[in-house]
Design brief:
Strand content: 15-25%
Number of strands: 17
Oligomer: single chain
Radius of gyration: 21 Å
Number of helices: 15
Structural class: alpha/beta
């Protein structure tokens, strides 16, 4: 007897695309994939009515805790589930991760309705010195170093150690840990003020000015530096939230270096969908900035040719009041984790004709492989039954009031997107149905911690 059977489904199967079939789940894992029309006995049967069944998305780049630290895993995991994201990797940083990660994990276990793991933020030499210890102890194999917080920019946030020396040391420590990856935020923050002040003096207060104060070549320069050092020490790196054609060209160039270690590239839905003329204004302020339309096209080219390996939302759930300011003082970042799938379907599949399997690989399968989550990322017997039933023709208008997030705005609000989840399963349990979180998931969130070492 199976626990769950999905009938009349169009299953996204690796290497086969959408395939008519029946799927059975037992003990939270995919137990059977059978031909269309085959009868399987189960405690619960769901008729998919010919809709798509996709693997749950993995969002490898969220900042839960930057809105309401005590409750973000409650609200933001619900936002994720509503949009078909069933696993997230959130950034955790503190002065000494050995003293803080247990509490962060336990709080998330009590609140999250999706499965979750951590990346550790590397901001000091102490973090480098203890990297092997905290990786083994907490099962974390990925980290992030913030080139954006060098010098005065870092001092304003209390970071005193971030420089090229810390980058080199962190990469060397990463190389010594099997399977570990160092993610890096690439922007040359030392040059940005030189470009910013004339724009401010000229009275500029528009989204394009934010792009002009941190242009593509400052991102590309940092990508070169990171890849160059990584090659010298043999460290795998991930260029997170890459936004520009020029920066992507640098990553491609370094990949051609003989014997180069893995160089992964992540972009975000907003770099695939918004440009610096967007009417969203300060609601779309983010680092790196949203760019010109040519850079948007470059990101899609990278998705299609495999240069871009993953997509993460860089989700930050702050309130609208932090954005209702001028472009120079509005907060950075915005919410987005539950909108990744609708944006990819609307802009990628429907508008641009990007193959669905390509979208699923960059939004789920590749993250499962890169970040050491072997039970996630595809509809395969033995893997977790993280599944999303999608109505590809369903159109909805983005309304922040319906998204469950701590944040009360969206840079996409008012946009009508085509292609939405109607049911989300995490390990075979329905957590979201027809645009709402189920009562069971509300009472017992049930998310599990992803131990990745």
């Amino acid at each position: 007897m199976l626990d769950l059977v999905l009938t009349n489904a169009r299953l996204m199967l690796p290497g086969h695309g959408l395939t008519d079939g029946v799927l059975g789940v037992r003990d939270g894992r995919i137990a059977v994939i059978a031909a269309h029309g085959e009868t399987l006995a189960a405690r619960e049967t769901v008729d998919c009515e010919g809709r798509w069944v996709l693997p749950g998305l993995i969002d490898p780049h969220v900042h839960f805790g930057f809105g309401s630290p005590e409750t973000d895993f409650l609200t933001e995991s619900r936002f994720a589930a509503l949009g078909g994201t069933t696993s997230v990797l959130s950034f955790h940083r503190s002065a000494d991760i050995r003293d803080s990660a247990d509490a962060a994990r336990d709080r998330a276990l009590a609140q999250s309705c999706v499965d979750f793991g951590f990346h550790f933020g590397i901001t000091s030499q102490l973090h480098v010195d203890t990297l092997a210890e905290i990786s083994e102890r907490f099962g974390v194999s990925s980290y992030k170093l913030y080139m954006m917080y060098k010098g005065a920019a870092g001092l304003s946030k209390g970071f005193t150690d971030i420089d090229d020396g810390l980058l080199y040391s962190a990469l060397k420590a990463t190389a010594a840990i099997p399977g570990a990856i160092m993610g890096v935020h690439c922007e040359n923050v030392e040059v940005i003020p030189v470009l910013r002040e004339p724009l401010r003096a000229a009275g500029r207060d528009d989204l394009a000015a934010w792009n002009e104060q941190s242009p593509d070549f400052l991102e590309a320069e940092n990508v070169h530096r990171v890849c160059y050092f990584a090659n010298k020490v043999g460290a795998a790196v991930n260029i997170v939230h890459l936004s520009s054609r020029e920066a992507l060209a640098e990553a491609r160039r370094h990949r051609r270096t003989k014997g180069a270690p893995p160089i992964y590239v992540e972009t975000c839905p907003h770099y695939l969908f918004l440009n610096d003329q967007s009417p969203a204004g300060t609601y779309a302020k983010v680092n790196p900035p949203v760019r010109g339309q040519d850079d948007v096209e470059a990101m899609w080219e990278g998705v299609l040719d495999g240069s871009i390996t993953t997509i993460g939302t860089d989700h930050v759930p702050r309130k609208r009041v932090t954005k209702d300011k001028d472009i120079w003082t509005a907060s950075n970042g915005f919410p987005g984790t539950g909108l990744m799938l609708p944006i990819l379907l609307h802009e990628g599949y429907h508008r641009r004709g990007v193959p669905l399997e390509t979208l699923i690989n960059v939004a789920a399968g590749n993250s499962a492989d890169i970040y050491r989550m072997p039970s996630k990322g595809s509809i395969t017997v033995g893997k977790d039954a993280d599944l999303v039933i999608v109505d590809p023709d369903l159109e909805r208008t983005v309304d922040p009031a319906t998204l469950e997030s701590h944040s009360d705005y969206s840079p996409y609000e008012g946009m009508t997107l085509k292609g939405w989840p109607v049911r989300t399963f995490v390990r075979g349990r329905t957590v979201a149905l027809d645009g709402r979180i189920t009562d069971e998931a509300t009472a017992t969130p049930g998310g599990r911690y992803l131990h990745r070492i």
